[in-house]
Design goal:
The complex is a heterodimer of chains A (about 300) and B (about 280). Chain A is an alpha/beta fold and about 300 residues long. Chain A contains ten helices and 13 strands. In chain B, α2 packs antiparallel against α3, α2 runs parallel beside α6 and α7 runs antiparallel to α9. Classes of the chains: A alpha/beta (about 300), B mainly alpha (about 280).
Amino acid sequence: MTAVIEFEAVGKRYVGVDSLRDLSFRIGEGEVLGLLGHNGAGKTTTMKLILGLIAPSAGRISVFGASPTGAEARALRQTLGYLPENVSFYEQLSGREVLTYFARLKRVPLRQIDGLLEKVGLTHAAGRRVKTYSKGMRQRLGLAQALLGAPRLLLLDEPTTGLDPAATRDFYAMVRELKDNGSTVILSSHVLPGIEPYIDRALILGRGRRLALGSIDELRTEAGLPLRVSARGDWRDTPTRWPAGVRPLAIGAERLELEVAPHAKMAALRQLAADSRTQDLELQAPTLENLYTHFSTRSEAAA
Amino acid sequence: MNAILTVAGKEFRDGLRNRWVLAIALVLGLLAVGIAYFGAAASGAVGFTSLSTTIVSLASLAVFLIPLIALMLAYDAVIGEQEQGTLLLLLTYPLSRTSLLLGKFLGHGLILATATVTGFGVAGLVIGIGAEDIVLGELVRSLGLFILSAVLLGWVFVALAYLVSVLVSEKSRAAGLALVLWFLFVLVFDLVLLALLVGAGERIGREGLTYLLLLNPTECFRLLNLTGFPAAQTAAGVTSVAADGALRPAALLTSLLAWIAVPLALAVWRFRNRHA
């Protein structure tokens, strides 16, 4: 797979503060990367570096094989789409006028605008001034702006802030569609449950460092966090011997809750399945949120 | 070039839409007609008086108003977009910072020019029709020069406003700094020059003081509109130290152009070299 973005030992120093340290990663074509981290972890800095808005203080960055601050930057920008955090567009212009302005600047045919407005569901409000738009409508206008010229790389900074659950779902459906069309997408968010199903890999940042990088499965393996298994049934009367790595959390009249280390998972499931008291089994693997908490608290403990 | 025109077009349309153009034209036009009509009220007469008095009164008024209008129009050109988040976005577009700033200058410049030409032009028409003993050629010539210099003066302060806008990190500071600039150029400079004239007039000499006037674009504007009018002497204030015609109109116009080019170049340079 060809690398769309490549970071090699990248560092960024603002007056005395390291906002990014020794960051290396590669993103391939058609990949959706979730950029996760607390505020100030370096998410926005990473995006600005990719966009060529700032130059790295150390290391090397290449985007589509070129340096984002180099001579090819102008051509590169034609293939990028960016939705900044907290952008409030020109209030006195209508949605269509905003898109027309940006389309002209990006030298994109103006006939794309109607299609984009429809895609983000703003056709009915296209002639109204942005001043009258709700937060969700503004965000959708921002997305339409980022999609001008069918960019091959999209950077979305906190794209779902202020969106209601339905709008968030629509939004991610659009991200999936873009991915299916071969676009590479980087999105940052701190609403983790929302993005879990839509990202291929997650890059977890903390204080400017890479804490973890991988698909959810890879992160689970790396973290080694226990799973939750709950079995329906009455487990009170007889004490049970559990295999190593299994720890009962709660034994009740209706439900048994176990914490199971990854290596003991199959042993525990076999035993439960064979037990006549088990009426139903539920298995819960660590969520992205659990993983995120794991990696970020581990780094804080180390610091 | 295309990007510059796109930005300029948007700025100009914004100016039309939020009624800047209309408001400026109305204010300037009404004031001009008012001054032309009531200019001689002090001497007991009402009605259109001599052209020179009118132009001189207009110039002394424009010297206060035009810089203020230009600064208000343009002080948030960059910092305003930065605060609403659109600057960051624009910088990720295939558009250089120079084009962005030049485009804005073109747009704002066009707003000011349209409003000034319309406002004072209509006033000129009213004077031309209403006044009795006015030579039409002379009216066109001096009003033309007046409008041209007023537009240039406006552009000077648009350029200065951009310099302010790229230097500060908050919109409110930009507004404050713009007011300070206005104060310095329009009010303080005269006082300092007056003090110099009284305190060290001998040593600097008349010649030296004349060239000092070039250091202030508003004085250049005033001088441009006073040369050639004998009646102007009384209304010229400090500027009259140079009223002997030591400075030709061409030199004054050049100075105004330099006052546009230098702050604009500095603003572009600063904008290109700062963080996003």
